[in-house]
Amino acid sequence: MNSLQDKKVIAFVGMPGSGKGTCTDYLHEKHHYPVVHFGNMMYEEVQRRGLDNVKDEKFVREDMRKKHGKAVLAKLVAQRADEHFAAGASVVVLDGLYSWSEYKYLEQKYGGQLLVIAVAAPRAERYKRILARTDSHRTYTSEAQIRSREVDEIENLEKGGPIAGADYTILNNQRREDLLASVEALLSQLGLSEM
What is the CATH number of domain 4-185? Predict the structure, then answer.
C-alpha cells in the first residue's frame, strides 16, 4: 500500500449520541486504524489559547472558522490523516465531521478514497445516551440543552449536509453489539476488513 489510491479515509457523521464514537473506538481497538477527532483539533486550539474546554469551545470553533474558513477543522484533520498515511496506515478513521464545507474539502482532497458513514438513532435514544455520559468534554442536564446544541449544529455548522450525503447509513437503535456487527459487515462488504 504505497499510493494514496490504496488508502481509505472513513469519516463518521451523525447527530450527537448517534454512536459515532462507539464506531470509531471499535475500529481503532479491533482493526488498529488510527482515529483523528475533529473535536480534538478544536480542543487543542482552546488549550493553546489558555481557555476553558467547556466554556470557550463554541467561541473558539466559531473564531477559527471566521479566521480560516468553514473547512478549517477538515484541513487540520487532513494534515493529521496524511501523517498517518505517511507512517504506513492504509485506513484512517475520522470522528466528528460536522459541516458541509468540511465534507466538500475532504471530498475534493481524497476523492474516491473518502467513505462517509452516517450513524442514525432515534432522538429519544440519543438523548438518553447523552444524558448518561460521564466521560465527555460537555455535560448536559436536560433534553432542552441537547436540543439547543442540535439546532446550533444544523443551522450554524451545516451538519445535515454530510449526513444526507453519506455513502452508507447504519441504524443504531438496538444493542451496542448490533451496531458493531453492522460496522463489521459494512467493512467486509467494502473489502476493508482485511486491510
Answer: 3.40.50.300
Grid coordinates given for 32? 488498529
β-strand 8-13 against 91-95: which pairing, if any? parallel
Q: Within 10 A of 95 (CB to CB), how many other CB atoms are there?
A: 22
**C-alpha pair distances (Å), 123 with each of 146, 152, 165:** 10, 16, 20
Identify the CA nearest to 100 among candidates 78, 71, 79.
71
Could you give the angle at the alpha carbon of 127 between the alpha carbons of 40 and 96, nearest 5°?
A: 25
Confidence of residue 1 (pLDDT cuts 50, 70, 90): very low
Domain definitions of the chain by residue range? 4-185
Give me the helices (H) in the chain, please.
20-31, 38-48, 53-68, 72-86, 100-110, 123-132, 143-156, 160-164, 176-190
What is the percent of the chain where pLDDT is above 90? Answer: 59
The C-alpha cell at 142 is 436536560
Grid coordinates belonging to 195: 486491510
pTM: 0.88
pLDDT single digits (tens) 145-157: 889 888 888 887 7
